[in-house]
């Protein structure tokens, strides 16, 4: 295992950034698997710097008003709504 | 149905009369492609009850062409897997090799065609998710050039990599389905009109089987480590093409040695961003209303996502996080550009490239779930194509010990017709 093998604390930190709760056994499992996977990803160090001249062009369309999903349809999959709005949890 | 091919069985009738191109044809649609009024789960508990309010562009094109959709096909959760075993709705058996996986992530789509549950199917391919199950189930699968088929209504996983594409028993039938779904869509700004010289015949018309004078490159790196039996079938199929006037040459693509890690870093990074929308507020499993919003989102995502999805979201978040971005994400983008350049160079010398689609025959069910890295490595021959935005086709090449083997042909961008012409010599 390389020096910078992942620690359980790092797995918890990344999970917090990604807003995914983890049970203790998930932390153990991911710590073990991430060490192996990231060690494999380290082979990217051997990739030379490459000139990346992507021939990309923006595709624009006129900014015109057009029909969109109606409110009732848009709200149909939400667990809770209020006065035609989505209802979410408290921000803090 | 014991084989668990569909997550939802349904009937969406096609429109038009008997002259419509797909009149009387049944199609299975992967369950990450939106169908208005029919639930679309992505194989995830997160979206177990999600009912899209609109159709994906490919779905409207199917029904406009007269096709009847018969079900939403099983898949690895959010397209993340090569076996269809990460589906929250249970694994699908391989109709061509009972007891084995059908491949993934579009395993239900390939199995539907192989089992005769549908004439045709649609899947999506982010790193091989059409070609792998096509190879494992002994059917034809096409991954189109990035930008040929609209992704509007496809639930995003790795949106710089993925394309929707067809499955069928024969190359001609798969090409006929491509004729229906291909072409620009104002709702997907990455679609474009293929660069062509004037009027082009349809894709299905290209299925002539004519390979006389075709120059086939065989990348040595894509044969390394492949199963002996798979290689034997591969060389036999190549011999068949040579009997019909094609020639083969060895070519080298040194960059593909780094394709798997580059692909996974990019796909996981994109996944961590794309799947951030699943917080249980607008749709999907809710985390309830106790606690603040970070807490309830984290609860919804713990309960709604399976192991492989969590793994990829976390690894993608890690690869993009401060201090690691240059080491992983930036290097992966360098590798992606390098892979593209290697393919461009190869197509200066040859018309198409050939390899086994998968280096191994279909896994036994349950074999690979405990070791994610081993599962990623099995994608070595398919992921370079997505990194380079190119078209590819997997066509049945034969069997080893009774297990299907697929041959992959890769073409230059928007050169689908040449791939279809060549592959139709085999199926």
Automatic annotation (TrEMBL), chain A:
Residues 59-85 have a biased composition (Basic and acidic residues). Its EC number is 6.3.5.-. GO terms for biological process: glutaminyl-tRNAGln biosynthesis via transamidation; regulation of translational fidelity; translation. The keyword Ligase applies. GO terms for molecular function: asparaginyl-tRNA synthase (glutamine-hydrolyzing) activity; ATP binding; glutaminyl-tRNA synthase (glutamine-hydrolyzing) activity; transferase activity. Keywords: ATP-binding, Ligase, Nucleotide-binding, Protein biosynthesis, Transferase. Gene3D superfamilies: Glu-tRNAGln amidotransferase C subunit, N-terminal domain (1.10.20.60). InterPro entries: Asp/Glu-ADT_sf_sub_c, GatC. It catalyses: L-glutamyl-tRNA(Gln) + L-glutamine + ATP + H2O = L-glutaminyl-tRNA(Gln) + L-glutamate + ADP + phosphate + H(+); L-aspartyl-tRNA(Asn) + L-glutamine + ATP + H2O = L-asparaginyl-tRNA(Asn) + L-glutamate + ADP + phosphate + 2 H(+). Pfam families: GatC (PF02686). It is an enzyme of class 6 (ligase). The keyword Acyltransferase does not apply. Belongs to the GatC family. Allows the formation of correctly charged Asn-tRNA(Asn) or Gln-tRNA(Gln) through the transamidation of misacylated Asp-tRNA(Asn) or Glu-tRNA(Gln) in organisms which lack either or both of asparaginyl-tRNA or glutaminyl-tRNA synthetases. The reaction takes place in the presence of glutamine and ATP through an activated phospho-Asp-tRNA(Asn) or phospho-Glu-tRNA(Gln). PANTHER family: GLUTAMYL-TRNA(GLN) AMIDOTRANSFERASE SUBUNIT C, MITOCHONDRIAL. NCBIfam families: gatC. This is Aspartyl/glutamyl-tRNA(Asn/Gln) amidotransferase subunit C. The gene is gatC.
TrEMBL record, chain B:
The keyword Phosphoprotein does not apply. The keyword Repeat does not apply. GO terms for molecular function: ATP binding; glutaminyl-tRNA synthase (glutamine-hydrolyzing) activity; transferase activity. Signal peptide: none annotated. The lineage of its organism: Archaea, Methanobacteriati, Methanobacteriota, Stenosarchaea group, Halobacteria. Allows the formation of correctly charged Gln-tRNA(Gln) through the transamidation of misacylated Glu-tRNA(Gln) in organisms which lack glutaminyl-tRNA synthetase. The reaction takes place in the presence of glutamine and ATP through an activated gamma-phospho-Glu-tRNA(Gln). Pfam families: Amidase (PF01425). Keywords: ATP-binding, Ligase, Nucleotide-binding, Protein biosynthesis, Transferase. Residues 184-195 have a biased composition (Basic and acidic residues). Its EC number is 6.3.5.7. It comes from Natrarchaeobius chitinivorans. InterPro entries: Amidase, Amidase_CS, Amidase_dom, AS_sf, GatA. PANTHER family: GLUTAMYL-TRNA(GLN) AMIDOTRANSFERASE SUBUNIT A, MITOCHONDRIAL, TRANSAMIDASE. The active site is at 30 (charge relay system), 105 (charge relay system), 129 (acyl-ester intermediate). Residues 84-110, 184-210 are annotated as: Disordered. It comes from the Archaea. Residues 17-419 form the Amidase domain. Belongs to the amidase family. GatA subfamily. One of its GO terms (cellular component) is glutamyl-tRNA(Gln) amidotransferase complex. It catalyses: L-glutamyl-tRNA(Gln) + L-glutamine + ATP + H2O = L-glutaminyl-tRNA(Gln) + L-glutamate + ADP + phosphate + H(+). This is Glutamyl-tRNA(Gln) amidotransferase subunit A. GO terms for biological process: translation. Heterotrimer of A, B and C subunits.
């Amino acid at each position: 295992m390389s020096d910078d093998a992942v620690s359980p604390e790092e797995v918890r930190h990344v999970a917090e950034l990604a807003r995914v709760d983890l049970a203790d056994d998930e932390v153990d499992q991911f710590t073990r698997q991430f060490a192996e996977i990231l060690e494999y990803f380290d082979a990217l160090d051997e990739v030379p710097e490459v000139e990346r001249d992507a021939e990309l062009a923006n595709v624009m369309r006129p900014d015109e008003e057009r029909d969109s999903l109606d409110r009732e349809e848009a709200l149909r999959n939400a667990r809770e709504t209020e006065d035609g709005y989505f209802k979410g949890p408290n921000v803090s | 149905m014991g084989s668990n091919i569909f997550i939802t069985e349904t009937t969406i009738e096609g429109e038009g009369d008997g002259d419509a191109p797909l009149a009387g044809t049944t199609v299975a649609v992967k369950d990450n492609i939106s169908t208005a009024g029919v639930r679309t789960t992505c194989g995830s508990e997160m979206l177990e009850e999600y009912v899209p309010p609109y159709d994906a562009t490919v779905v409207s094109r199917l029904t406009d062409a007269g096709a009847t959709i018969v079900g939403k096909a099983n898949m690895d959760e959010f397209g993340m897997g090569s076996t269809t075993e990460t589906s929250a709705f249970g694994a699908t058996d391989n109709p061509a090799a009972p007891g084995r996986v059908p491949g993934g992530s579009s395993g239900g789509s390939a199995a539907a065609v192989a089992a005769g549950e549908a004439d045709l199917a649609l899947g999506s391919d982010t790193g091989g998710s059409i070609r792998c199950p096509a190879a494992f189930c002994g059917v034809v699968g096409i991954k189109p050039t990035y930008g040929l088929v609209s992704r509007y209504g496809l639930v995003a996983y790795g949106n710089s990599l993925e394309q929707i594409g067809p499955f069928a028993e024969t190359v001609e039938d798969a090409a006929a389905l491509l004729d229906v779904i291909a072409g620009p869509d104002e709702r997907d700004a990455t679609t474009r009109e293929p660069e062509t010289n004037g009027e082009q015949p349809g894709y299905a018309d290209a299925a002539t089987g004519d390979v006389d004078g075709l120059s086939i490159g065989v990348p040595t790196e894509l044969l390394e480590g492949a199963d002996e039996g798979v290689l034997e079938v591969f060389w036999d199929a190549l011999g068949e093409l040579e009997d019909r006037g094609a020639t083969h040459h060895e070519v080298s693509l040194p960059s593909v040695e780094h394709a798997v890690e580059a692909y996974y870093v990019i796909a996981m990074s994109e996944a961590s961003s794309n799947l951030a929308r699943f917080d249980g507020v607008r749709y999907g499993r809710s985390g309830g209303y106790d606690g603040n919003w970070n807490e309830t989102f984290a609860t919804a995502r713990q309960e709604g996502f399976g192991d492989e999805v969590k793994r990829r979201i976390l690894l993608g978040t890690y690869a993009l996080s401060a201090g690691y971005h240059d080491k992983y994400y930036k290097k992966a983008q360098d590798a992606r550009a390098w892979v593209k350049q290697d393919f461009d160079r190869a197509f200066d010398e040859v018309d198409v490239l050939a390899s086994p689609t998968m280096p191994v025959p279909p896994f036994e069910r349950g074999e690979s779930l405990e070791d994610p890295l081993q599962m990623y490595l099995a994608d070595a021959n398919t992921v370079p194509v997505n990194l380079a935005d190119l078209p590819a086709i997997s066509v049945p090449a034969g069997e080893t010990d009774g297990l299907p083997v697929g041959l992959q042909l890769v073409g230059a961008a928007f050169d689908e017709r040449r791939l279809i012409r060549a592959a139709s010599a085999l199926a």
